[in-house]
Amino acid sequence: MNKIKQTEPSMATASGVGILAAAMVALLATFIDLTPEQITALTSVIILASGVISGWLIRRQVYSPATVAGLSEDGQSQLE
């Protein structure tokens, strides 16, 4: 997993968040007495939140080539 995280951080992050979202939906549907409409609504909210969280986490980990080039020209040796 660590090698995938180093070479494909976007894919690893999105996959991890997607797995957690699927687990949350499965747990909610199994252990909480909800109607099908409520399960559908909660699933929609969880899917929406997982997309936002994935985007936020990916943005924190991945830099565009232009950003890296700009940082290299400024003499910064480490990305934050």
Largest sheet: none
Rough outline: elongated
Mean pLDDT across residues: 84
End-to-end CA span: 22 Å
The low-confidence parts are: none
SS field, number of helical segments: 4
Helix content: over 70%
Oligomeric state of the chains? single chain
Class by helix and strand content?
mainly alpha
Task: Report the strand count.
Answer: 0
The H-and-E topology, N to C, reads as HHHH
How much of the polypeptide forms β-strand, as a percent range? under 5%
| Rg calculated over all Cα atoms | 18 Å
Walk me through what this model shows:
By secondary structure, the protein is mainly alpha-helical. The protein has a domain of 27 residues. The chain is 80% helix and 0% strand. The protein has four helices and no strands. The chain is elongated. The mean pLDDT is 84.
State the gist of this model.
The protein is an all-alpha fold and 80 residues long. The chain has helices at residues 2-7, 9-31, 36-61, 65-73.
Secondary structure: elements and pairs:
Blueprint: H1 2-7, H2 9-31, H3 36-61, H4 65-73
Sum up the structure in keywords.
mainly alpha; 4 helices
